[in-house]
Write a structure and sequence with these properties.
- The chain has 14 helices and twelve strands.
- By secondary structure, it is of the alpha+beta class.
- The termini are far apart.
- The relative contact order is 0.14.
- This is Winged helix DNA-binding domain-containing protein.
Length: 363
């Protein structure tokens, strides 16, 4: 069995993630190629697309959300993602077992929870108007006063197919966004066909070569070993340097590890640092704690030669927009020059009304 080095895993993943070069591709097509992008907050998906698409402009994603060709919804791992409307209709049913299993996190707060009564009640409320969960929870508690309000909200968010309704806000959603019923927002009903195998193949196309555990980590679904075993006859099978079995699509790109990788800025919660159980193909274990915080926030990161070498943040001071780099280790001047050039372009994308932009390194 062929062994795939960490360097080749890195370049293969960057190639699938459109991080070796920016491509001329639509936002809808890219999001489908990536099988969704993380969207815990409204701004990061815009940065994720900017760093991957040549000439990407904010209105493209904003318009796609309003035209309902892209949706923001609770999907993989029970977290918010952007997904094409077509893929949402295709895969939402497939992800339901994972979302149902997630109710276990409620523990004793789920006492008295009756989904057979709750979900029709929530559907009736949302049919009258989109609601944020800040608005929805009190209405649900009126109907179910003996049940914890957070449990009611969580159950509705995970058990009822919903999408976030976009607005004219700067990043297409307010901080507290309203949800609406998916079957009212989209022109077609959700598929009821189990598309688990198709989802696994799409995952490998976006993140492979990858292990069964990697797929489970990304999707939240169980039985990764059984799924990959079922698909084995369609796949190439490799080993990594530690002997783990990795699966991949036969025709997927697997560049040599010496292929150049430009510096890139990734937003908070980017797919690249969340999609594998073993993240060492892009992020060293000793730096993982500097990227993923104790309260499970995932910081914005930057790549140097294909690997996460630090985190970044932006601030605005009157007419000036500042990007601050926090490298894990000192960076050579030529690398810093590249990061400054790329960072200034990112600031101009994020803050087009800023009079001046500056990239600086934290002391």
């Amino acid at each position: 069995m062929d062994i795939v080095t960490r360097g080749r895993l890195n370049r293969a993943t960057l190639a699938r993630q459109h991080l070796l070069s920016r491509d001329q591709v639509s936002a809808v097509d890219l999001i489908e190629r990536l099988c969704g992008i993380q969207a815990q907050e409204a701004r990061p998906p815009f940065v994720a697309l900017w760093t991957r698409i040549a000439g990407f402009k904010k209105p493209e994603l904003h318009n796609a959300l309003h035209e309902r060709t892209i949706v923001r919804a609770t999907l993989m791992r029970g977290t918010l993602h952007l997904m094409s409307a077509a893929d949402f209709l295709r895969f939402r049913h497939t992800l339901q077992p994972m979302l149902t299993a997630s109710l276990r996190v409620l523990g004793s707060r789920a006492n008295g929870l009756d989904l057979d009564r709750l979900l029709p009640t929530a559907r009736a409320i949302l049919a009258t108007a989109p609601r944020s969960f800040t608005e929805l929870r009190p209405l649900l508690q009126e109907a179910f006063p003996a049940v914890n309000d957070r449990a009611l909200g969580y159950a509705v968010r995970t058990q009822l197919p919903l999408v976030m309704r976009p607005t004219q806000d700067r990043w297409s959603f307010p901080t507290v966004a309203a949800f609406t019923l998916a079957d009212e927002w989209l022109p077609e009903p959700l598929s009821t066909v189990d598309a688990t195998d198709q989802l696994a193949l799409r995952y490998l196309g976006a993140f492979g070569p990858a292990s069964a555990q990697d797929f489970q980590t990304w999707s939240g679904l169980g039985e990764g070993k059984q799924i990959m075993e079922r698909l084995r006859h369609k796949l190439e099978v490799f080993q990594d340097e530690s002997g783990r079995e990795l699966f991949d699509l036969p025709e997927a790109p697997r560049p040599d590890e010496d292929v150049p990788a430009p510096v890139r800025y990734l937003p908070e919660f980017d797919n690249l640092v969340l999609a594998h159980s073993d993240r060492t193909r892009v992020l060293a274990d000793n730096h993982r704690g500097e990227v993923v915080t104790k309260n499970l926030r995932v910081r914005a990161t930057f790549l140097v030669d294909g690997y996460v070498r630090g985190v970044w943040e932006t601030t605005r001071k009157k007419d000036k927009s500042i990007l601050t780099l926090r490298p894990f280790l000192p960076l050579p001047r030529p690398v810093l020059d590249e990061l400054v050039e790329e960072g200034e372009a990112l600031l101009r994308f994020q803050e087009p009304d800023a009079g001046t932009v500056e990239v600086t390194v934290a002391p």
